[in-house]
Amino acid sequence: MKFDRVDWNRAFFKTYSEKRSIGHLLVNFNRIWVIHVAVYYFYTSFNSQNIYRINGRTTPAMTWSAVALGGAVATIIMILATLAEFSYIPTTWNNTSHLTRRLVFLFITLGLTAGPTFYVAIVESNGTGGNLSLILGIVQFFISVIATVLFSVMPSGRMFGDRVAGKSRKYLASQTFTASYPTLGKMSRMGSILLWLLVFGCKFTESYFFLTVSFGKPVQVMVGMKVQGCSDRFFGNALCRNQAAFTLTIMYIMDLCLFFLDTFLWYIIWNTVFSIARSFTLGLSIWTPWKDIYTRLPKRIYAKLLATQAMEVKYKPKVNFNTIPCLHQLMC
């Protein structure tokens, strides 16, 4: 009876603009891109040391620093996702302040994960690099690993300050309505964490040894290779002379595609294992055909939901089941 006295514009504020665009691939799946693209860069850069040779040799400091750029790759993905997220929210201070703060921290992280590489490359090319450049490259690498893990595990909304989980009454409506999610039980949460640890643990191990380590030899041979004695009618030798570089680029792209597919492979394997284990835990047979499960569903609904002690026995389950028209049509 008091709803007419509520100032709805002050009680709630819109936090999202409904529209569909390709930017959702970044905003909604940024952690998927970070997990795959950044880790793929870590792997391939370590096995592609011929690309960043300085004066014909690869130094340990440059190796540490070049591999550490994987953290910069993860940070750039997060920055692009944050910029894309600006287009999906109303431009009010309540909405943009959180994204602006996140964007500032991401640029600082980008400086920490990419800046030292410029210094290491300069001092190593001048021959003046020593323990300082090596220590700087190692520190840069561990900062990049920490940043990549955080970006992969932590949702964007909780990064650099969670406005929904705070105690401010300004976001009380979001805490109660739009961002009120049920929490998993202890065993369910442990099962979910174990599933994804097994999926990505097997995936990263298998992908490293069967995708990137074997990829190092072709890179070692093809980097810097120039095809001689070739010519084309329209382009001369501009394209065919760099055929090895084009081929190597295509190989990198295909290797990244296989890196994505490995995740799906291991997800199917471990999801099957967990499904069978859960079936036995619930006392179900894994050999029961799906057809039998669906044909028995009306009787199960009758036995579990509709049948009561007060109901006469003369009514058959099929008759009682007709009291739910939508489900009856679906099953029949």
Describe this structure in words.
With 332 residues, this protein is an all-alpha fold. The protein has 3 domains: 3-181; 204-281, no CATH class; 290-331, no CATH class. 65% of the residues lie in helices and 0% in strands. It has 14 helices and no strands. It has helices spanning 8-11, 24-27, 30-46, 60-85, 93-126, 131-153, 172-178, 186-212, 216-222, 243-281, 290-295, 297-306, 317-321, 325-331. Helix 3 (30-46) packs antiparallel against helix 6. The two termini are 45 Å apart. Residues 319-332 have low confidence and may be disordered.
**Number of helical elements:** 14
For the termini, the CA-CA separation is: 45 Å
Helix content: 55-70%
Q: Secondary-structure element order, as H and E?
A: HHHHHHHHHHHHHH
- What is Rg? 28 Å
Which residue ranges are poorly predicted, with pLDDT under 50 across at least 5 consecutive positions?
A: 319-332
How many strands? 0
How many domains make up the 3D coordinates? 3
Q: How much beta, percentage-wise?
A: under 5%
Q: Averaged pLDDT, please?
A: 82
Q: What sort of overall outline do the alpha carbons produce when their principal axes are compared?
A: extended
- The secondary structure category is mainly alpha
Largest sheet: none
